[in-house]
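Q: Here's a chain of 260 amino acids. Please give me its 3D structure as tokens.
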Amino acid sequence: MHDKLSPAWQLLRGLQPLSLCDWPGHTTCVLFFGGCNLRCPTCHNANIAWHPEKQPALFTPDVVNYIERRKDWLDGIVISGGEPTIVPDFPAFLQDMRSFGLPVKVDTNGLQPGTVSMLLEQKLADAFFVDVKGPWHKYPALTGDTCTERQAQESLEWIFALAAKQPDVFRFRLTKVPLLDAQDIETAKTYLPNGFKLTLQDYVPPRRSNAQQDKQTRRLSGDLVHGEDCPGHSESPESERGEGPAAGQTSGGESRSQAW
């Protein structure tokens, strides 16, 4: 069943074995892809998002075996990042996910609406959680000058149109980062289609010297499987959600997850 897997598996950089809060109402595991089309200064997954080539790839057979062993205890699989919609061969990867017989949720910044539309048409994902960064005019600052106001508006309005047609598939969320004030958040709420709620998430600053800081805190939604020497590291799960390799490493640079 898993003899011919998509090459996209080689771009996975993290696995959270169990999460109770990444998909409300679902017990899930979370897979993290490396790479992102944004450079948000408040990013918690900066290592895998910005420098995936420096992070060991997960050992694909271990990931497959883990999901196979646990699929009867899981309610779904969450695909996150980074930004999964920019991953080459991502549709084929989601086809592989379908073979486990579990619902699939994709986390996305919504800036690849054509990809999201195609995935919907092909029924390759059951849910999309979309991050709305803030009001359009603040997107350049919120994304490290990697997205213009016009790009943000055009992309997200396409996403909103898709959501209006399939409201059960989409949820929208906003993280209250330091660059946003109360009026910015109220403005962002007005963008959503009728009947949708913008879920607000508190911001906790990453422990990076170049990260924007504030005094808010929140519970992070779980930890990535890391090496045994990582818990006290400055970029361990305690400091940045979803960063770093799984336990062990093969000579080819793939991390081996002996603790799953």
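Q: Can you summarize the key feature?
A: The helical segments are 46-50, 60-70, 90-98, 113-121, 139-142, 149-165, 182-189.
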